[in-house]
Amino acid sequence: MHLLLIDEENDLKKTLTGLKTIRKITVDYCCDVPGASRRLQKKQYDLIVLEIFKNNECHLDSIAELRQISSTPIIVITKFPSISTAILAVKSGADDYYAKASDPLLWITKHLNKIGDNKVAVEEPKYTPIGHLQWDHMKKMLQQTKGNISAAARLLGINRRTLHRKISAHEQDPRH
């Protein structure tokens, strides 16, 4: 799979370059649309990832320029996501729109699965529920204080009664 990244910053470039070894995806990089146009005339890509904010200005016209050159799917990314920009991007010819802070592996594999014969497994992120994290932290503080609720509450920065209530709630329903 061949991916073309059009972005003036290097942060996403580093992340996507890591896909080379993980998913066998080739990533070519350009910092502007004219450079991307030259690459698209020489090589066929499976996916184009375009950052539409350059020099703190929105360049939605870049999508139309790329659409005239190639029918390759275009994912628009931005550090400044908004609903209005997402609507304009899709109306301009983008296939999808994501915040730059989102997980690139998930949205790239989603689009590559649409176009490729080989299915790439999309692994959903595994999150630990906040209640579990909170309980684990409280348990750790209780162990540090050898079960002293008052001392553990001071370490946690909460009231002793609050900690006692949380412990009681967990004993009644361990899913919390």
Describe the structure.
Helix content is 50%, strand content 16%. By secondary structure, it is α/β, with parallel strands linked by helices. The strands form two sheets. Strands 2-1-3-6-7 form a five-stranded parallel beta sheet, sandwiched between helices. A two-stranded antiparallel ribbon has the order 4-5. Strand 4 (53-54) and strand 5 (57-58) form a beta hairpin. Helix 7 (130-144) crosses helix 8 and helix 8 crosses helix 9 (160-172). The radius of gyration is 24 Å and the shape is elongated.
Brief overview, please?
The chain is of the alpha/beta class and 176 residues long. Helix content is 50%, strand content 16%. The chain has a five-stranded parallel beta sheet, sandwiched between helices. It has a two-stranded antiparallel ribbon with strand order 4-5.
Which structural traits does this protein have?
single chain; 176 residues; alpha/beta; five-stranded parallel sheet; two-stranded antiparallel ribbon; 9 helices; 7 strands; 50% helix; elongated
Order of neighbouring strands in the sheet with most strands: 2-1-3-6-7
Major beta-sheet overview: 5 strands, parallel
Radius of gyration: 24 Å
SSE topology string: EHHEHEEEHEHEHHHH
> pLDDT under 50 segments (min length 5)?
none
Beta-strand content: 15-25%
Q: How far apart are the first and last residues' alpha carbons, in Å?
A: 43 Å
> How would you sum up the global shape?
elongated
- Determine the number of helices (DSSP H or I, runs of at least 4 residues): 9
Helix content: 40-55%
Number of strands: 7
What structural category do the secondary elements indicate? alpha/beta
Mean of pLDDT: 80
